[in-house]
């Protein structure tokens, strides 16, 4: 078949542009990051036209990416390699649709087989730790931005992008909504103004929050929230002095407040707090105890599972399928799960 010449850089740009209508910016950013290595490979190998790409090139790329050599490249974990190859496969399928490569080329890029559980992160914020951190914030920084971010992440179990996208108008702190007997927040998919939800319109939902959380949010709005609008003229709930925070702000907040030394607890890693680089704000993520918003979400799922909250309720509240919740968020041990099952089984 006739192919239209196009450079790898232009092909990737076209692929990312095509994603714009159907995918959140965070997804596009992740795909762009994963394809950077492929562009580097093409540059090193002198591949200037995607039409020239062959199955043999894809095999060489897989080895090049897995083993790492030269230019400071390091070998990567199998799960990381699988993610990067899956993205490249999607790109090649798109490239085939726009006559940049053979339409069947993507089939020649096989993905590594993962052993059971090998593609699942085991990082989480244990419910006990989450509650300790919230208790500390409630006493030391009540109604602060740090407190509200942690509180909303824990109470709703929502993704950080959903928390970031909340506006003042999305908060029913008096419980006046006819569907709820109490305060709630409304997560809304607004891609046209920069705050899409992971599952688009299907992610739009109301989540109940506690009366205590509502009162702390009221305190935050009155005493700590910057009275600013974002670039779209909206009134974000969580703010910086410049407007709506960037996505990394919530992640940095979690890294910082989940370090034990931050709240005066003893370092569990035998580090000298005076010299530990993780005590500096820019390096908080280097603390082995630091956790991300995703870890708060998995901790919340674990808490729900321990409390035997019906699965359908958890799926709806966290806007995720049962399979995703089980594979990526439930951190109960095998022993815990067995003991919970025994509560529902008759004695033999």
Number of helices: 13
pLDDT average, as an integer? Answer: 84
The proportion of residues in beta strands is under 5%
Structural class: mainly alpha
What is the H-and-E element order? Answer: HHHHHHHEEEHHHHHH
Uncertain segments? 116-121, 328-332, 337-348
Query: How much helicity do the residues have?
Result: 40-55%
Detailed description of the structure:
The protein has a domain of 101 residues: Tyrosine recombinase, N-terminal domain (DNA polymerase, domain 1). It has a three-stranded antiparallel β-sheet with strand order 1-2-3, with no helix packed on it. The chain is 46% helix and 3% strand. The relative contact order is 0.09. The chain is mainly alpha-helical and 348 residues long. The N and C termini lie far apart (68 Å). One of its GO terms (molecular function) is DNA binding. This is Site-specific tyrosine recombinase XerC. InterPro entries: CB, DNA_brk_join_enz, Integrase-like_cat_sf, Integrase_catalytic, Integrase_recombinase_N, Integrase_SAM-like_N, Tyrosine_recombinase_XerCD. Keywords: DNA integration, DNA recombination, DNA-binding.
